[in-house]
Every structure is written in structure tokens, then in C-alpha cells.
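We emphasize that the prediction below concerns an isolated chain of 453 residues; any contacts that depend on oligomerization or on bound cofactors are therefore not represented. The input was used exactly as deposited, without trimming of termini.
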Amino acid sequence: MTDYRAFFKDKKVTVVGLGLLGKRLGDIAFLAECGAKVLVTDLKPSTELRPSLQKLRKYRSIKYVLGEHRFEDFQDKDFILKGQGVALDSPYIKHARKKGIPIEMDESLFIKLVPGVKIIGVTGTRGKSTTTILIYEILKAAYKNPLTSLRTKKPVVFLGGNIKGTAALPLLKKVKDGDIVVFELSSWQLQGFGEAKISPYISVFTNFMPDHMNYYKNNLKKYFTDKSYIYKFQKNRDTLVLGPNMKSLIKNAKGRIINASFKNIPKSWKINLPGKHNLANIACAIEVARVLQIKEETIKKVVEKFEAIEGRLELVKTIRGIKIYNDTNSCTPEATSVALQALSEKKRNIILILGGSDKNLDFKNLFQDIEKYVKALVLIPGNGTDRIMQNYSIIKNVHIYKEGNFKEVVLKAYSLTKKGDIMLFSPAFTSFGMFNNEYDRGDKFMEIVKKLK
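Result of the prediction step, given as a C-alpha cell string:
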């Protein structure tokens, strides 16, 4: 194990992206606690970032440059810590490279500092959160996760990556050689793996479909390239678990390949998660557990108890025979289609709340599913919603409503329901504009729903 305090002490670090998700806060606070000389820069002004700034106010040594980036902050540093969504071809990142300054990201930097810790990484366009957390729960049950102060010979299992409320670098304070960290990894986070030329020792690639095309400028190949770092640098002794439809997409993998299959889920198991897509997630998690030689009875017990995680087809309330689902993390048309298919009862009884910021994705198939399963569509304001309104005549036999603010949207949707209906909040777009992020969007939905009677 690297002495992380000695490694970071007095290091001059520019952190690119403060954000409002909370992940960056943990990393920034950790660096400050270790004695690093931290400068945080973000294109958003301080007025937008106030909640994050307030949480960091006790760290007096941190300097901020907000509302802009300056080239001078990308030179004379020991490394740049790049946040998710910051383009690798940013002129500021290019400037740092020209000056010979290393570009780091938190998960990949963490891994470089803990060579004795086993890393399980999960990526995919959809299903990575559910798969990651299910793997984590299975491993916790198998190893009966002891407190770090009461360690046995069994590894301690940690959760991290693209999970709400987690940050990678603070895990350095907890992990020991032989422990396991299960990371959910977005394409953006995997850029850091490509930079460092590393991949997890067990990797899971759940599925692949278009997403973030606004960021990748409609280049699907670039998006896949970032995703491929989940396995590209694996060694022969490593393992790659592929979702049921991934076999034909993967080339030149060096590790052992396991193709997850629906057939490998015993039919006698009582699954609580709705939808075929969740069976694919379960199939992937099962294969990881079997690679680690976890007892089948332990896997079965955890899988049968496992329910939808927050913001992903989460049944949050049943009122007057009306089921209300929070699916805020569905940020693509494919994800919303999957939600509709999972909840369909062979009748058009779904009132769908949809809309937000555009990602330049194709909505043709979602429109077809809306016609098939949706009784009424209530739209959230946003530039993606505007694109739907330009083509709303394509959707046949569905009542469409557009409201001025989010509370009005939710209340309108609820007013359209009757006993036996489903009210589904599955936006199909990103949250930016009206909300800070998809978690903020989900929280606001839950606040309104809690007051419904």
C-alpha cells in the first residue's frame, strides 16, 4: 500500500470541476486533509455552486477560480484531477499536457495507489448501477463484511465509482491489501483508465447503446472506445463478464471471457426486480459471484431479497390502487422504453412523465412504445421536450400535456390517474436546466409524491 498522505502532501493540484453531485467534494476535502495545495476551477459561477462551496468552507486552504478556466492554473502543477464530463481535448487539458503535467481521474488514481486491492468494475449504457450494487451486496453477504477495525482473514468490500454519495480517493483511508472495491464506471470515468492504461481484474460490460451523443458529437465509436477501457488493459489472468447481448461487440479482449446468460438464472428463484433488463443485470452479477466461488445459496438469498435501487424503476408509493414509480436515472429513450416494457400489463394504463435536456438521441422506438403502453404523456420543460413537441403528431392516440413547472407536471400526471393505473416518472432526457442533476430531479419528484393523497 502506498503511503497516501506522504504521496499527496504539498502536491500542487488543480481540480477541474466542482459540480453539485457531491462526488468531487469528497475528493477535494480528502486532498486538502492530506496537505495538498488545491485549486478548484469550474466554468459555473459561485452562485450556482453555492451548495458545494458551503460544504467545503471549513477547508480554508482551498483556492477557487469559478466562472472561468485560466491557462495559468493548468501549469506548474504536480497533476490535474479531471472531473467527469471534462473533455480530454479541452484546450486547458491540452495546455497541461504540453507542459508535461499528468492528467488524473479519481478512480484510476485510486487504483494506481492500491496495487494490493482487488478491483471489480462495471460499465454499460444501462444497468450498471443495479449490477454494481447487487455484486456489492452478494460479496458483503459472502464475506460477512467485518468492521475495518475488527478485520478477519476475509476481505472487506467497498462500493464506489458512479454511485450517489461516493468518492474514490477517501477510500484510501479505509482499504487494506486483499480488500475488494466494486466500482460503477461511466464512459467519462473510464477515460482515466485509458489514460493510466489499466483495467479492473474483473470487468463487467452490461450492454451498449447510443448515449451522451451531445458530448461525443454523434460519434458512437468514440463513446465505445471510452467504454472499452473497462477491459482493454486486462491481463490473461483477468476476467471479463459480458451482458447477454454483448458477445459480438467485443474484440481483442485478453482476459477470460464469460458470457452471462438468462439460462444461468435458476427458474426456481423468486426475482423481485421487474423487466427482462433486470434479469440481464442479475445474470452478470451471478457470473461475478461464481468467478469468486461464492456459494450458490448465498447468491440466491441476496438476489431474491434485492429490490429496485433508488431512482431506477423504484416503486415509491401506491395510492388508491395507483402505483407510482421513480425512474429518474432513465436519461435515454432506450431506458424509458425498457421501463415501459417492464411495467406493461398488456394494456395502456401508464401515465408517463417525460422530458428535459436533449442529448441528440433517436426517439423513434420510444414513440412506438409510448403509443403501445401510454395513456397520457405529461412533459417536463426543456430543449429535448421542445424537440418532442415538434414531432408530437407522430404519437397516435395518446393525450399529451405540457406544464410550466415541475410541480405542475407531477400534479397533472397524478390528476390523470385512476385505480389500476401506473404513474411513471422516466424522463428519457438529462436533467440539466431545471435541475442540478438526475438525483436532484429524483429528490424533487419524491418531495411532491410524498404529499399526494
